[in-house]
Amino acid sequence: MDAVLIYIGLAAIFGIFMAWGIGANDVANAMATSVGSKALTIKQAILVAAIFEFLGAVLAGGEVTSTIRKGIVDTSLLDSQPELLIYGMLAALLSAGTWLLIASAKGWPVSTTHSIVGAIVGFAAVGIGMDAVQWGKVGGIVASWVISPLTAGFIAFLIYNSVISLILSREDPLARARRYVPVYIFLAAFTKTLVTILKGLKHVGLTLSIQQRYLLAGGIAVAISIGGALYIRRIQPDPKADKKQHFHTVERVFAVLMVVTACGMAFAHGSNDVANAIGPLAAVIAVAQSGVVAAKSATPIWVLLLGGVGIVIGLATYGVRVIATVGEKITHLTPSRGFAAELAAATTIVIASGTGIPISTTHTLVGAVLGVGLARGIDAIDLGVVKRIFVSWVVTIPAGAVLAILFFTIFRYTLP
Amino acid sequence: MSNFVAGVFGSSPVGRLEEHANLVHKCARTLTDFFAAVSELDWDAAQQARDQITSLENEADEVKKQIRKHLPRSLFMPVPRQDLLELLLVQDKIANRSKDVSGIVIGRRLEIPPPLIASFLDFVSRCVDATKQARKSVRELDELYTSGFRGAEADLVIEMIEKLDSIETETDDLEAQLRSELFLLEKDLNPVDVIFLYQTIGKLGEVADMAERVGRRLELLLAR
Q: What is the pTM of this model?
Protein backbone atom coordinates (compact mmCIF):
# COMPACT_ATOMS: atom_id res chain seq x y z
CA MET A 1 0.00 0.00 0.00
CA ASP A 2 2.76 2.41 0.96
CA ALA A 3 4.70 1.54 -2.15
CA VAL A 4 1.68 2.25 -4.34
CA LEU A 5 1.27 5.67 -2.78
CA ILE A 6 4.96 6.45 -3.21
CA TYR A 7 4.85 5.44 -6.88
CA ILE A 8 1.75 7.44 -7.63
CA GLY A 9 2.99 10.40 -5.60
CA LEU A 10 6.34 10.46 -7.36
CA ALA A 11 4.71 10.00 -10.76
CA ALA A 12 2.34 12.87 -10.04
CA ILE A 13 5.19 15.14 -8.97
CA PHE A 14 7.33 14.27 -12.00
CA GLY A 15 4.30 14.48 -14.26
CA ILE A 16 3.50 17.98 -13.02
CA PHE A 17 7.16 18.94 -13.43
CA MET A 18 7.05 17.74 -17.01
CA ALA A 19 3.70 19.40 -17.67
CA TRP A 20 5.05 22.61 -16.17
CA GLY A 21 7.99 22.45 -18.57
CA ILE A 22 5.68 21.85 -21.52
CA GLY A 23 3.54 24.80 -20.52
CA ALA A 24 6.53 27.03 -19.97
CA ASN A 25 8.08 26.32 -23.37
CA ASP A 26 6.06 24.40 -25.93
CA VAL A 27 2.72 26.03 -25.26
CA ALA A 28 4.36 29.41 -25.04
CA ASN A 29 5.96 28.85 -28.45
CA ALA A 30 2.69 27.69 -29.92
CA MET A 31 0.81 30.74 -28.65
CA ALA A 32 3.54 33.28 -29.38
CA THR A 33 2.75 33.44 -33.11
CA SER A 34 -0.74 34.73 -32.28
CA VAL A 35 0.60 37.24 -29.78
CA GLY A 36 3.38 38.40 -32.12
CA SER A 37 0.90 39.16 -34.87
CA LYS A 38 -1.27 40.97 -32.32
CA ALA A 39 -4.32 38.80 -32.92
CA LEU A 40 -4.36 38.04 -29.19
CA THR A 41 -3.05 39.79 -26.10
CA ILE A 42 -0.90 37.74 -23.76
CA LYS A 43 -3.78 37.35 -21.30
CA GLN A 44 -6.14 36.19 -24.03
CA ALA A 45 -3.49 33.75 -25.27
CA ILE A 46 -3.22 32.20 -21.80
CA LEU A 47 -6.99 31.90 -21.57
CA VAL A 48 -7.23 30.31 -25.02
CA ALA A 49 -4.36 27.96 -24.18
CA ALA A 50 -5.87 26.93 -20.86
CA ILE A 51 -9.22 26.05 -22.42
CA PHE A 52 -8.10 24.47 -25.66
CA GLU A 53 -5.04 22.61 -24.39
CA PHE A 54 -7.37 20.90 -21.98
CA LEU A 55 -10.04 20.18 -24.60
CA GLY A 56 -7.39 18.86 -26.97
CA ALA A 57 -5.92 16.58 -24.32
CA VAL A 58 -9.27 15.21 -23.22
CA LEU A 59 -11.02 14.95 -26.59
CA ALA A 60 -8.21 14.05 -28.97
CA GLY A 61 -5.23 13.12 -26.81
CA GLY A 62 -6.14 9.52 -26.11
CA GLU A 63 -4.28 7.94 -29.02
CA VAL A 64 -0.93 9.59 -28.33
CA THR A 65 -1.23 8.92 -24.61
CA SER A 66 -1.73 5.26 -25.35
CA THR A 67 1.28 5.22 -27.70
CA ILE A 68 3.47 6.70 -24.98
CA ARG A 69 1.98 4.34 -22.38
CA LYS A 70 2.24 1.11 -24.24
CA GLY A 71 3.27 1.65 -27.84
CA ILE A 72 7.01 2.01 -27.34
CA VAL A 73 7.76 -0.59 -24.67
CA ASP A 74 6.65 -4.13 -25.33
CA THR A 75 4.91 -4.59 -22.00
CA SER A 76 4.25 -8.29 -22.49
CA LEU A 77 7.87 -8.91 -21.45
CA LEU A 78 7.21 -7.27 -18.09
CA ASP A 79 4.43 -9.47 -16.78
CA SER A 80 6.69 -10.98 -14.15
CA GLN A 81 8.23 -7.69 -13.04
CA PRO A 82 5.59 -4.97 -13.35
CA GLU A 83 7.59 -2.67 -11.05
CA LEU A 84 10.23 -2.30 -13.80
CA LEU A 85 7.70 -0.42 -15.89
CA ILE A 86 7.01 1.88 -12.93
CA TYR A 87 10.70 2.63 -12.38
CA GLY A 88 11.14 3.11 -16.09
CA MET A 89 8.27 5.51 -16.57
CA LEU A 90 9.29 7.50 -13.49
CA ALA A 91 12.84 7.66 -14.84
CA ALA A 92 11.56 8.71 -18.27
CA LEU A 93 9.52 11.56 -16.83
CA LEU A 94 12.33 12.79 -14.63
CA SER A 95 14.99 12.57 -17.33
CA ALA A 96 12.88 14.23 -20.01
CA GLY A 97 11.94 16.97 -17.56
CA THR A 98 15.57 17.49 -16.56
CA TRP A 99 16.81 17.50 -20.12
CA LEU A 100 14.15 20.03 -21.10
CA LEU A 101 15.15 22.24 -18.20
CA ILE A 102 18.80 22.18 -19.29
CA ALA A 103 17.89 22.72 -22.93
CA SER A 104 15.53 25.63 -22.22
CA ALA A 105 18.12 27.31 -20.05
CA LYS A 106 20.60 27.05 -22.94
CA GLY A 107 18.06 28.00 -25.58
CA TRP A 108 18.48 24.75 -27.51
CA PRO A 109 15.65 23.89 -29.89
CA VAL A 110 14.80 20.67 -28.06
CA SER A 111 11.46 18.94 -28.38
CA THR A 112 9.52 17.53 -25.41
CA THR A 113 8.35 14.62 -27.51
CA HIS A 114 11.85 13.70 -28.61
CA SER A 115 13.05 13.81 -25.02
CA ILE A 116 10.34 11.57 -23.61
CA VAL A 117 10.50 9.06 -26.47
CA GLY A 118 14.30 8.95 -26.18
CA ALA A 119 14.01 8.43 -22.45
CA ILE A 120 11.46 5.63 -22.74
CA VAL A 121 13.50 3.90 -25.44
CA GLY A 122 16.60 4.31 -23.26
CA PHE A 123 15.26 2.71 -20.11
CA ALA A 124 13.56 -0.06 -22.06
CA ALA A 125 16.55 -0.96 -24.22
CA VAL A 126 19.13 -0.90 -21.44
CA GLY A 127 17.08 -1.54 -18.31
CA ILE A 128 14.94 -4.33 -19.69
CA GLY A 129 16.49 -5.51 -22.93
CA MET A 130 16.74 -4.62 -26.60
CA ASP A 131 13.69 -6.82 -27.29
CA ALA A 132 11.58 -4.69 -24.96
CA VAL A 133 11.55 -1.84 -27.45
CA GLN A 134 9.04 -2.00 -30.29
CA TRP A 135 11.62 -0.85 -32.81
CA GLY A 136 9.20 -0.84 -35.73
CA LYS A 137 6.95 1.64 -33.99
CA VAL A 138 9.86 3.74 -32.78
CA GLY A 139 11.17 3.86 -36.35
CA GLY A 140 7.80 5.09 -37.51
CA ILE A 141 7.73 7.76 -34.82
CA VAL A 142 11.23 8.97 -35.67
CA ALA A 143 10.35 9.10 -39.38
CA SER A 144 7.28 11.18 -38.51
CA TRP A 145 9.55 13.74 -36.85
CA VAL A 146 11.05 14.48 -40.24
CA ILE A 147 7.81 14.10 -42.16
CA SER A 148 5.64 16.30 -39.93
CA PRO A 149 7.61 19.57 -40.32
CA LEU A 150 7.88 18.90 -44.06
CA THR A 151 4.15 18.26 -44.35
CA ALA A 152 3.29 21.34 -42.32
CA GLY A 153 5.69 23.39 -44.44
CA PHE A 154 4.11 22.13 -47.64
CA ILE A 155 0.56 22.83 -46.44
CA ALA A 156 1.58 26.29 -45.20
CA PHE A 157 3.17 27.02 -48.58
CA LEU A 158 -0.07 26.12 -50.37
CA ILE A 159 -2.27 28.04 -47.93
CA TYR A 160 -0.20 31.20 -48.08
CA ASN A 161 0.00 31.07 -51.86
CA SER A 162 -3.76 30.77 -52.01
CA VAL A 163 -4.07 33.78 -49.70
CA ILE A 164 -1.88 35.84 -52.03
CA SER A 165 -3.69 34.74 -55.18
CA LEU A 166 -7.20 35.04 -53.79
CA ILE A 167 -6.85 38.12 -51.60
CA LEU A 168 -3.61 39.99 -51.14
CA SER A 169 -2.58 40.48 -54.77
CA ARG A 170 -6.04 41.69 -55.83
CA GLU A 171 -7.45 45.16 -56.42
CA ASP A 172 -10.02 44.79 -53.64
CA PRO A 173 -8.26 42.80 -50.92
CA LEU A 174 -10.65 43.92 -48.18
CA ALA A 175 -13.80 42.75 -49.96
CA ARG A 176 -12.08 39.53 -50.88
CA ALA A 177 -10.82 38.96 -47.35
CA ARG A 178 -14.36 39.34 -46.06
CA ARG A 179 -15.49 36.75 -48.57
CA TYR A 180 -12.71 34.17 -48.24
CA VAL A 181 -11.62 34.38 -44.60
CA PRO A 182 -14.78 32.56 -43.42
CA VAL A 183 -13.79 29.73 -45.77
CA TYR A 184 -10.42 29.45 -44.06
CA ILE A 185 -12.18 29.57 -40.69
CA PHE A 186 -14.30 26.68 -41.87
CA LEU A 187 -11.22 24.68 -42.90
CA ALA A 188 -9.51 25.36 -39.58
CA ALA A 189 -12.56 24.38 -37.55
CA PHE A 190 -13.44 21.38 -39.71
CA THR A 191 -10.09 19.56 -39.42
CA LYS A 192 -10.04 19.90 -35.67
CA THR A 193 -13.68 18.94 -35.05
CA LEU A 194 -13.43 16.05 -37.47
CA VAL A 195 -10.43 14.50 -35.71
CA THR A 196 -12.12 15.09 -32.37
CA ILE A 197 -15.29 13.42 -33.51
CA LEU A 198 -13.52 10.55 -35.24
CA LYS A 199 -11.20 9.89 -32.33
CA GLY A 200 -12.58 11.52 -29.24
CA LEU A 201 -16.22 10.49 -29.09
CA LYS A 202 -15.25 6.99 -28.04
CA HIS A 203 -14.39 8.36 -24.62
CA VAL A 204 -17.69 10.16 -24.31
CA GLY A 205 -19.49 6.98 -25.34
CA LEU A 206 -21.24 8.38 -28.40
CA THR A 207 -21.60 6.13 -31.42
CA LEU A 208 -22.30 7.67 -34.80
CA SER A 209 -21.99 6.39 -38.33
CA ILE A 210 -19.16 7.72 -40.45
CA GLN A 211 -21.53 9.94 -42.48
CA GLN A 212 -23.06 11.31 -39.33
CA ARG A 213 -19.64 12.13 -37.97
CA TYR A 214 -18.61 14.04 -41.07
CA LEU A 215 -21.93 15.85 -41.08
CA LEU A 216 -21.58 16.76 -37.43
CA ALA A 217 -18.03 18.05 -37.95
CA GLY A 218 -19.16 19.99 -41.01
CA GLY A 219 -22.12 21.45 -39.14
CA ILE A 220 -20.00 22.65 -36.23
CA ALA A 221 -17.42 24.11 -38.59
CA VAL A 222 -20.11 25.95 -40.59
CA ALA A 223 -21.52 27.38 -37.37
CA ILE A 224 -18.08 28.65 -36.29
CA SER A 225 -17.46 30.03 -39.77
CA ILE A 226 -20.78 31.92 -39.78
CA GLY A 227 -19.95 33.35 -36.36
CA GLY A 228 -16.61 34.51 -37.74
CA ALA A 229 -18.26 35.99 -40.84
CA LEU A 230 -20.70 37.97 -38.72
CA TYR A 231 -17.87 39.32 -36.62
CA ILE A 232 -15.87 40.22 -39.74
CA ARG A 233 -18.81 42.17 -41.15
CA ARG A 234 -18.61 44.49 -38.19
CA ILE A 235 -15.00 45.44 -38.87
CA GLN A 236 -14.96 48.97 -40.26
CA PRO A 237 -12.08 50.24 -42.41
CA ASP A 238 -9.81 52.77 -40.74
CA PRO A 239 -8.92 55.15 -43.62
CA LYS A 240 -6.10 56.83 -41.74
CA ALA A 241 -4.33 53.61 -40.83
CA ASP A 242 -5.06 52.20 -44.28
CA LYS A 243 -3.32 55.11 -45.91
CA LYS A 244 -0.17 54.33 -43.99
CA GLN A 245 -0.44 50.58 -44.53
CA HIS A 246 -2.89 49.60 -47.28
CA PHE A 247 -3.48 46.18 -45.72
CA HIS A 248 -4.26 47.44 -42.23
CA THR A 249 -7.97 46.63 -42.27
CA VAL A 250 -7.39 43.46 -44.28
CA GLU A 251 -5.05 42.25 -41.56
CA ARG A 252 -7.70 42.99 -38.96
CA VAL A 253 -10.00 40.63 -40.82
CA PHE A 254 -7.24 38.01 -40.80
CA ALA A 255 -6.80 38.59 -37.08
CA VAL A 256 -10.29 37.16 -36.55
CA LEU A 257 -9.20 34.08 -38.44
CA MET A 258 -6.06 33.90 -36.38
CA VAL A 259 -8.04 33.76 -33.15
CA VAL A 260 -9.64 30.61 -34.55
CA THR A 261 -6.33 29.09 -35.64
CA ALA A 262 -4.78 29.98 -32.27
CA CYS A 263 -7.53 27.97 -30.58
CA GLY A 264 -6.81 25.21 -33.08
CA MET A 265 -3.11 25.38 -32.35
CA ALA A 266 -3.67 25.09 -28.59
CA PHE A 267 -6.11 22.27 -29.21
CA ALA A 268 -3.65 20.45 -31.48
CA HIS A 269 -0.86 20.95 -28.99
CA GLY A 270 -3.00 19.61 -26.18
CA SER A 271 -3.94 16.58 -28.24
CA ASN A 272 -0.33 15.66 -28.88
CA ASP A 273 2.00 17.03 -26.22
CA VAL A 274 0.00 16.69 -23.03
CA ALA A 275 0.45 12.95 -23.54
CA ASN A 276 4.18 13.36 -22.98
CA ALA A 277 3.50 14.16 -19.34
CA ILE A 278 0.33 12.17 -18.88
CA GLY A 279 1.24 8.97 -20.73
CA PRO A 280 3.99 7.83 -18.35
CA LEU A 281 1.96 9.00 -15.38
CA ALA A 282 -1.05 7.00 -16.53
CA ALA A 283 1.14 3.96 -17.05
CA VAL A 284 2.55 4.20 -13.51
CA ILE A 285 -0.91 4.61 -11.99
CA ALA A 286 -2.38 1.70 -13.92
CA VAL A 287 0.41 -0.67 -12.92
CA ALA A 288 0.67 0.54 -9.33
CA GLN A 289 -3.05 0.22 -8.67
CA SER A 290 -3.66 -3.10 -10.36
CA GLY A 291 -0.27 -4.72 -9.84
CA VAL A 292 -0.28 -6.00 -13.41
CA VAL A 293 1.10 -4.56 -16.62
CA ALA A 294 -1.53 -5.52 -19.13
CA ALA A 295 -4.15 -3.32 -17.53
CA LYS A 296 -6.50 -2.04 -20.19
CA SER A 297 -7.79 0.72 -17.94
CA ALA A 298 -8.57 4.08 -19.46
CA THR A 299 -6.60 7.15 -18.38
CA PRO A 300 -8.33 8.53 -15.27
CA ILE A 301 -9.80 11.98 -15.70
CA TRP A 302 -7.93 13.43 -12.71
CA VAL A 303 -4.68 12.57 -14.47
CA LEU A 304 -5.72 14.58 -17.51
CA LEU A 305 -6.75 17.38 -15.20
CA LEU A 306 -3.37 17.26 -13.49
CA GLY A 307 -1.65 17.53 -16.87
CA GLY A 308 -3.86 20.42 -17.87
CA VAL A 309 -3.30 22.26 -14.60
CA GLY A 310 0.47 21.71 -14.76
CA ILE A 311 0.58 23.16 -18.26
CA VAL A 312 -1.43 26.23 -17.34
CA ILE A 313 0.79 26.85 -14.31
CA GLY A 314 3.88 26.52 -16.49
CA LEU A 315 2.40 28.93 -18.98
CA ALA A 316 1.38 31.45 -16.33
CA THR A 317 4.63 31.36 -14.33
CA TYR A 318 7.27 31.15 -17.01
CA GLY A 319 5.59 30.84 -20.40
CA VAL A 320 4.37 34.42 -20.23
CA ARG A 321 7.93 35.64 -20.51
CA VAL A 322 8.65 33.28 -23.40
CA ILE A 323 5.55 34.52 -25.21
CA ALA A 324 6.62 38.12 -24.68
CA THR A 325 10.15 37.44 -25.97
CA VAL A 326 9.01 35.57 -29.04
CA GLY A 327 6.11 37.92 -29.67
CA GLU A 328 8.40 40.93 -29.69
CA LYS A 329 10.75 39.30 -32.13
CA ILE A 330 8.15 38.31 -34.71
CA THR A 331 6.18 41.49 -35.18
CA HIS A 332 6.48 41.18 -38.95
CA LEU A 333 4.49 37.96 -38.81
CA THR A 334 1.17 39.59 -39.65
CA PRO A 335 -2.11 37.66 -39.16
CA SER A 336 -2.36 36.87 -42.88
CA ARG A 337 0.94 35.00 -42.66
CA GLY A 338 0.69 33.76 -39.09
CA PHE A 339 -2.64 32.08 -39.60
CA ALA A 340 -1.26 30.12 -42.58
CA ALA A 341 1.55 28.76 -40.42
CA GLU A 342 -0.76 27.96 -37.52
CA LEU A 343 -3.44 26.35 -39.67
CA ALA A 344 -0.89 24.15 -41.45
CA ALA A 345 0.88 23.15 -38.22
CA ALA A 346 -2.32 22.49 -36.28
CA THR A 347 -3.78 20.39 -39.08
CA THR A 348 -0.62 18.29 -39.33
CA ILE A 349 -0.45 17.84 -35.56
CA VAL A 350 -4.09 16.93 -35.15
CA ILE A 351 -3.84 14.31 -37.88
CA ALA A 352 -0.77 12.87 -36.14
CA SER A 353 -2.68 12.91 -32.85
CA GLY A 354 -5.56 11.07 -34.43
CA THR A 355 -3.14 8.40 -35.66
CA GLY A 356 -1.45 8.23 -32.26
CA ILE A 357 1.93 9.53 -33.41
CA PRO A 358 3.79 11.69 -30.89
CA ILE A 359 5.43 14.48 -32.90
CA SER A 360 7.15 17.70 -31.97
CA THR A 361 4.59 20.47 -32.16
CA THR A 362 7.22 23.18 -32.02
CA HIS A 363 9.30 21.73 -34.86
CA THR A 364 6.13 21.27 -36.88
CA LEU A 365 5.27 24.92 -36.32
CA VAL A 366 8.79 25.94 -37.38
CA GLY A 367 8.32 23.81 -40.52
CA ALA A 368 5.08 25.64 -41.25
CA VAL A 369 6.75 29.02 -40.73
CA LEU A 370 9.46 28.02 -43.21
CA GLY A 371 6.73 26.99 -45.65
CA VAL A 372 5.22 30.48 -45.47
CA GLY A 373 8.75 31.83 -45.93
CA LEU A 374 9.23 29.74 -49.08
CA ALA A 375 6.02 31.29 -50.41
CA ARG A 376 7.81 34.65 -49.96
CA GLY A 377 5.63 35.43 -46.99
CA ILE A 378 8.22 36.23 -44.34
CA ASP A 379 10.53 39.22 -44.48
CA ALA A 380 13.55 37.37 -43.14
CA ILE A 381 14.14 33.84 -41.88
CA ASP A 382 17.31 32.83 -40.11
CA LEU A 383 18.27 29.46 -41.53
CA GLY A 384 20.89 29.00 -38.83
CA VAL A 385 18.09 27.82 -36.55
CA VAL A 386 17.21 25.00 -38.91
CA LYS A 387 20.73 23.66 -38.56
CA ARG A 388 20.42 23.82 -34.78
CA ILE A 389 17.14 21.92 -34.91
CA PHE A 390 18.85 19.12 -36.82
CA VAL A 391 21.63 18.99 -34.25
CA SER A 392 19.07 18.85 -31.44
CA TRP A 393 17.41 15.88 -33.11
CA VAL A 394 20.66 13.98 -33.05
CA VAL A 395 21.56 14.96 -29.48
CA THR A 396 18.22 14.76 -27.66
CA ILE A 397 17.50 11.07 -28.04
CA PRO A 398 20.83 9.83 -26.62
CA ALA A 399 20.72 12.51 -23.93
CA GLY A 400 17.20 11.55 -22.87
CA ALA A 401 18.16 7.89 -22.99
CA VAL A 402 21.34 8.23 -20.91
CA LEU A 403 19.56 10.28 -18.23
CA ALA A 404 16.70 7.77 -18.17
CA ILE A 405 19.09 4.86 -17.71
CA LEU A 406 20.74 6.70 -14.85
CA PHE A 407 17.48 7.47 -13.06
CA PHE A 408 16.14 4.00 -13.82
CA THR A 409 19.12 2.41 -12.09
CA ILE A 410 18.77 4.72 -9.10
CA PHE A 411 15.04 4.01 -8.72
CA ARG A 412 15.57 0.31 -9.13
CA TYR A 413 17.86 0.14 -6.14
CA THR A 414 16.27 2.74 -3.90
CA LEU A 415 12.51 2.44 -4.37
CA PRO A 416 10.58 -0.37 -2.66
CA MET B 1 17.60 32.77 -22.25
CA SER B 2 17.26 32.66 -25.98
CA ASN B 3 14.28 31.12 -27.66
CA PHE B 4 14.69 29.26 -30.89
CA VAL B 5 11.25 30.01 -32.26
CA ALA B 6 12.12 33.69 -31.96
CA GLY B 7 15.46 32.83 -33.57
CA VAL B 8 13.73 31.56 -36.71
CA PHE B 9 12.69 35.10 -37.48
CA GLY B 10 15.44 37.37 -38.70
CA SER B 11 15.03 41.04 -38.21
CA SER B 12 12.99 42.51 -41.05
CA PRO B 13 14.87 45.06 -43.16
CA VAL B 14 11.64 46.64 -44.48
CA GLY B 15 10.94 49.18 -41.75
CA ARG B 16 14.54 50.36 -41.66
CA LEU B 17 14.71 50.66 -45.45
CA GLU B 18 11.63 52.86 -45.41
CA GLU B 19 13.12 54.91 -42.61
CA HIS B 20 16.31 55.32 -44.63
CA ALA B 21 14.32 56.43 -47.68
CA ASN B 22 12.63 59.01 -45.53
CA LEU B 23 15.90 60.37 -44.18
CA VAL B 24 17.58 60.70 -47.57
CA HIS B 25 14.56 62.47 -48.98
CA LYS B 26 14.53 64.92 -46.08
CA CYS B 27 18.22 65.46 -46.73
CA ALA B 28 17.61 66.26 -50.41
CA ARG B 29 14.58 68.38 -49.57
CA THR B 30 16.72 70.65 -47.41
CA LEU B 31 18.55 71.60 -50.64
CA THR B 32 15.50 73.74 -51.49
CA ASP B 33 16.03 75.88 -48.37
CA PHE B 34 19.75 75.83 -48.95
CA PHE B 35 19.63 77.19 -52.48
CA ALA B 36 16.88 79.66 -51.61
CA ALA B 37 19.26 81.10 -49.00
CA VAL B 38 22.20 81.01 -51.41
CA SER B 39 20.22 82.85 -54.09
CA GLU B 40 19.54 85.60 -51.55
CA LEU B 41 23.19 85.56 -50.47
CA ASP B 42 22.02 84.82 -46.92
CA TRP B 43 25.06 82.74 -45.94
CA ASP B 44 23.97 82.25 -42.33
CA ALA B 45 20.73 80.61 -43.38
CA ALA B 46 22.65 78.63 -46.00
CA GLN B 47 25.07 77.40 -43.36
CA GLN B 48 22.15 76.35 -41.18
CA ALA B 49 20.59 74.36 -44.01
CA ARG B 50 23.97 72.86 -44.80
CA ASP B 51 24.36 71.72 -41.16
CA GLN B 52 20.95 70.12 -41.32
CA ILE B 53 21.87 68.30 -44.51
CA THR B 54 25.06 67.00 -42.91
CA SER B 55 23.28 65.75 -39.83
CA LEU B 56 20.54 64.05 -41.89
CA GLU B 57 23.22 62.42 -44.01
CA ASN B 58 24.88 61.11 -40.85
CA GLU B 59 21.58 59.76 -39.59
CA ALA B 60 20.98 57.99 -42.89
CA ASP B 61 24.48 56.49 -42.67
CA GLU B 62 23.69 55.18 -39.21
CA VAL B 63 20.49 53.52 -40.42
CA LYS B 64 22.41 52.10 -43.39
CA LYS B 65 24.89 50.48 -41.02
CA GLN B 66 22.06 49.08 -38.91
CA ILE B 67 20.45 47.51 -41.97
CA ARG B 68 23.71 45.91 -43.05
CA LYS B 69 24.34 44.64 -39.55
CA HIS B 70 20.98 42.90 -39.47
CA LEU B 71 21.30 41.22 -42.84
CA PRO B 72 23.58 38.23 -42.22
CA ARG B 73 24.17 35.82 -45.07
CA SER B 74 22.23 33.05 -43.35
CA LEU B 75 18.98 34.93 -43.91
CA PHE B 76 16.40 33.55 -46.25
CA MET B 77 14.34 36.37 -47.73
CA PRO B 78 11.66 36.82 -50.36
CA VAL B 79 14.10 38.99 -52.31
CA PRO B 80 17.84 38.48 -52.66
CA ARG B 81 19.92 40.11 -49.98
CA GLN B 82 22.16 41.61 -52.67
CA ASP B 83 19.26 43.41 -54.34
CA LEU B 84 18.21 44.95 -51.05
CA LEU B 85 21.75 46.07 -50.30
CA GLU B 86 22.07 47.69 -53.72
CA LEU B 87 18.76 49.47 -53.26
CA LEU B 88 20.11 50.76 -49.97
CA LEU B 89 23.34 51.85 -51.60
CA VAL B 90 21.78 53.97 -54.37
CA GLN B 91 19.31 55.36 -51.90
CA ASP B 92 22.18 56.40 -49.67
CA LYS B 93 23.85 58.18 -52.58
CA ILE B 94 20.93 60.62 -52.71
CA ALA B 95 22.07 61.87 -49.31
CA ASN B 96 25.74 61.78 -50.28
CA ARG B 97 25.21 63.87 -53.41
CA SER B 98 23.08 66.35 -51.47
CA LYS B 99 25.85 66.75 -48.98
CA ASP B 100 28.51 67.08 -51.73
CA VAL B 101 26.64 69.71 -53.65
CA SER B 102 25.90 71.84 -50.59
CA GLY B 103 29.56 71.45 -49.59
CA ILE B 104 30.85 72.83 -52.88
CA VAL B 105 28.56 75.83 -52.74
CA ILE B 106 29.07 76.73 -49.09
CA GLY B 107 32.83 76.16 -49.22
CA ARG B 108 33.36 78.63 -52.03
CA ARG B 109 30.47 80.97 -51.15
CA LEU B 110 29.46 80.20 -54.72
CA GLU B 111 26.97 82.78 -55.95
CA ILE B 112 24.30 81.92 -58.46
CA PRO B 113 24.31 84.53 -61.25
CA PRO B 114 21.03 86.50 -60.87
CA PRO B 115 19.71 85.77 -64.40
CA LEU B 116 20.00 82.04 -63.64
CA ILE B 117 18.29 82.02 -60.24
CA ALA B 118 14.75 81.26 -61.42
CA SER B 119 15.69 78.28 -63.61
CA PHE B 120 18.19 77.11 -61.00
CA LEU B 121 15.60 76.95 -58.22
CA ASP B 122 13.15 75.26 -60.60
CA PHE B 123 15.76 72.64 -61.34
CA VAL B 124 16.49 72.04 -57.63
CA SER B 125 12.83 71.67 -56.77
CA ARG B 126 12.27 69.18 -59.59
CA CYS B 127 15.25 67.11 -58.40
CA VAL B 128 13.71 67.07 -54.93
CA ASP B 129 10.40 65.96 -56.51
CA ALA B 130 12.29 62.96 -57.87
CA THR B 131 13.60 61.98 -54.45
CA LYS B 132 10.12 62.45 -53.01
CA GLN B 133 8.68 60.09 -55.60
CA ALA B 134 11.48 57.61 -54.85
CA ARG B 135 10.57 57.73 -51.17
CA LYS B 136 6.92 57.20 -52.03
CA SER B 137 7.81 54.10 -54.04
CA VAL B 138 10.09 52.67 -51.37
CA ARG B 139 7.38 53.21 -48.78
CA GLU B 140 5.35 50.62 -50.67
CA LEU B 141 7.92 47.93 -49.78
CA ASP B 142 5.93 46.84 -46.75
CA GLU B 143 2.81 46.35 -48.89
CA LEU B 144 4.86 44.63 -51.59
CA TYR B 145 6.09 42.09 -49.06
CA THR B 146 2.53 41.49 -47.88
CA SER B 147 1.18 40.95 -51.37
CA GLY B 148 3.99 38.64 -52.42
CA PHE B 149 5.39 41.15 -54.95
CA ARG B 150 2.56 40.52 -57.35
CA GLY B 151 -0.83 41.69 -58.45
CA ALA B 152 -2.47 45.03 -57.85
CA GLU B 153 0.17 46.26 -55.41
CA ALA B 154 3.01 45.48 -57.82
CA ASP B 155 1.16 47.32 -60.59
CA LEU B 156 0.76 50.30 -58.32
CA VAL B 157 4.50 50.41 -57.64
CA ILE B 158 5.28 50.07 -61.34
CA GLU B 159 3.08 53.11 -61.98
CA MET B 160 4.95 55.01 -59.30
CA ILE B 161 8.27 54.11 -60.87
CA GLU B 162 7.04 55.27 -64.28
CA LYS B 163 6.14 58.60 -62.76
CA LEU B 164 9.55 58.75 -61.13
CA ASP B 165 11.14 58.15 -64.54
CA SER B 166 9.20 60.97 -66.13
CA ILE B 167 10.17 63.35 -63.33
CA GLU B 168 13.79 62.39 -63.83
CA THR B 169 13.51 63.03 -67.58
CA GLU B 170 12.18 66.50 -66.78
CA THR B 171 15.16 67.17 -64.54
CA ASP B 172 17.42 66.16 -67.43
CA ASP B 173 15.71 68.71 -69.68
CA LEU B 174 15.91 71.39 -67.00
CA GLU B 175 19.58 70.58 -66.49
CA ALA B 176 20.32 70.91 -70.21
CA GLN B 177 18.47 74.21 -70.34
CA LEU B 178 20.32 75.50 -67.29
CA ARG B 179 23.66 74.55 -68.80
CA SER B 180 22.87 76.38 -72.03
CA GLU B 181 21.78 79.48 -70.11
CA LEU B 182 24.99 79.34 -68.13
CA PHE B 183 26.95 78.92 -71.36
CA LEU B 184 25.55 82.20 -72.65
CA LEU B 185 26.63 83.98 -69.47
CA GLU B 186 29.93 82.27 -68.78
CA LYS B 187 32.25 84.67 -70.63
CA ASP B 188 31.22 87.46 -68.22
CA LEU B 189 31.76 85.38 -65.09
CA ASN B 190 34.75 84.35 -63.03
CA PRO B 191 36.07 81.22 -64.84
CA VAL B 192 36.68 79.28 -61.63
CA ASP B 193 33.14 79.99 -60.44
CA VAL B 194 31.84 78.82 -63.81
CA ILE B 195 33.64 75.51 -63.47
CA PHE B 196 32.11 74.99 -60.04
CA LEU B 197 28.68 76.08 -61.20
CA TYR B 198 28.76 73.40 -63.88
CA GLN B 199 29.87 70.92 -61.22
CA THR B 200 27.04 71.97 -58.93
CA ILE B 201 24.49 71.51 -61.70
CA GLY B 202 25.97 68.11 -62.50
CA LYS B 203 25.81 66.95 -58.87
CA LEU B 204 22.21 68.12 -58.54
CA GLY B 205 21.38 66.13 -61.67
CA GLU B 206 22.96 63.13 -59.99
CA VAL B 207 20.60 63.50 -57.00
CA ALA B 208 17.69 62.98 -59.40
CA ASP B 209 19.65 60.23 -61.16
CA MET B 210 20.07 58.31 -57.93
CA ALA B 211 16.37 58.71 -57.22
CA GLU B 212 15.64 57.19 -60.61
CA ARG B 213 18.04 54.34 -59.90
CA VAL B 214 16.12 53.61 -56.69
CA GLY B 215 13.19 53.02 -59.02
CA ARG B 216 15.29 50.69 -61.19
CA ARG B 217 16.27 48.70 -58.10
CA LEU B 218 12.66 48.39 -56.97
CA GLU B 219 11.76 47.23 -60.45
CA LEU B 220 14.35 44.47 -60.15
CA LEU B 221 12.72 43.28 -56.91
CA LEU B 222 9.43 43.07 -58.79
CA ALA B 223 10.85 41.36 -61.85
CA ARG B 224 11.35 38.08 -60.07
A: 0.89
